[in-house]
Specification:
By secondary structure, the protein is mainly beta. The strands form three sheets. Strands 3, 5, 6, 8, 11 and 13 form a six-stranded antiparallel beta sheet that branches. A five-stranded antiparallel beta sheet has the order 4-7-12-9-10, with no helix packed on it. Strands 1-2 form a two-stranded antiparallel ribbon. The chain is globular, with a radius of gyration of 22 Å.
Length: 189
């Protein structure tokens, strides 16, 4: 009696579906599953302002911007320097395998003097338990161009937990503003 093997590709998931009989035939040569490039785009709404001891020590606010109201404006309540550790944090839902890059779109108020107000660090962290987060990407390039423009930081990691974008900001004047637009993560699934 001949055995019948049934195998097929699920178009919705891309997984190979096999019967028990077919699975035994494929153990020596398992099917290859190709990784697919993905990009997820995020609104900055939901971003939080944080100082070295959390939101209570933030020297700026993160609120919806007017026009479009889906951007976020970072408004200083006092001048802050590199050593004041002022961070905007934004959670990024990511259920894919690896991260290859992060892109951030921003603008610094056109009245700001060049180099006075800027994004001084771009960071991605991965968190599982609430008592710590692992820094997966840490780029210390000062983003001083007034813009609006987008910049991309290459990465190469697979997060073990949730992803959070951190932007360390420096404000040289309380009249300056940094506006955050689209944020995107690129990777493989």
């Amino acid at each position: 009696m001949a055995s019948i093997s049934i195998a097929g590709l699920c178009l919705a998931t891309g997984f190979l579906i096999t019967s028990a009989a077919a699975a035994t035939d494929q153990t020596a040569n398992p099917p290859s599953i190709n990784a697919v490039a993905v990009t997820a785009r995020y609104s900055p709404l939901g971003a939080t302002a944080n100082g070295p001891s959390g939101p209570a020590t933030a020297r700026f606010t993160a609120t919806p911007y007017c026009c479009p109201s889906t951007a976020v404006v970072l408004t200083p309540t006092q001048i802050s320097a590199e050593t004041d550790f002022q961070w905007m944090h934004l959670g990024l839902p990511w259920d894919n395998t690896s991260v290859n890059a992060v892109t951030v779109c921003y603008a610094i108020s056109p009245t700001a003097a060049a180099g006075r107000t800027y994004i001084s660090q771009t960071r991605l962290t991965s968190m599982t338990t609430p008592n710590s987060a692992l820094v997966m990407l840490d780029d210390g390039t000062d983003r001083t161009t007034l813009g609006p423009l987008c910049y991309t930081v290459p990465a190469s990691f697979t997060p073990a937990g949730t992803l959070t974008l951190g932007l360390k900001v420096v404000f040289g004047s309380t009249s300056d503003r940094i506006t955050i637009g689209m944020v995107s993560i690129s990777g493989m699934s």
